[in-house]
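Quick check before the chapter quiz. The format below is the same one you will see on the exam, so make sure you can read both the input and the output lines.
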Amino acid sequence: MKRYFIYLAYNGENYCGWQVQPNGISVQEVIEKALAILLRIPTPIVGAGRTDAGVHARMMIAHFENESENLDLLLLTKKLNSILPKDIAIYKIVEVRPEAHARFDATSRLYRYYITTEKDPFLHHLKYKVHGNLDTERMNACANILFEYEDFTSFSKLHTDVKTNNCTVMLANWEQHGNNFIFTIKANRFLRNMVRSIVGTLLEAGRGKIDEGGIRSIIEAKDRSAAGTSVPGHALFLEEIEYNNDIFK
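Here is the expected output.
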């Protein structure tokens, strides 16, 4: 049995999230059905993460197994793209070591959240529009506080099935380009709803309602109700996933 990584992208607008759920169509479900048609066998896939409803991915990676000795990966990629809907694209498929795992072997994930203060009739579905001015310098000062902590319970959705709420944040910063703001965050792992609740909290800092001491108090409370409101998912993108090279063939 051989194992493969699929590199793909999707617009999450029409999906209930990455993972198969009983209450809607997921990205995982659509890809599994396409693989089953082409490989003529049920083919479960395991993703590197679980994006929520409406969240997008410029880069998602998932693994699957197949016992064929001569699987044409270029042809499979082409055929998948031909039968998948327009909002899911396969970049490439590569063979990895049999024990490689798309989720557990990922060393980091990088997300970006896109905000605008202007009305945009063309990109409104990919950006979160906010009112008033934002203080980028203040938001970055508060974002730097994230590096001081590991337990991010205050930014996690309640009643999740994870064993620990500890994460190592490697990058967290805001960039401003005119009326547009981009928040980039990179960590070894993320909790459910973590990025969206961090952005919502840092927006409060940008409006002058929270300072660095306030961010520390929120994190140390280890209480979701202490943090700000989660921002909508439609402006959040999973952009990068990294692995050590030794898992690849």
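If your answer matched, good. The CA atoms of residues 102 and 212 lie 36 Å apart.
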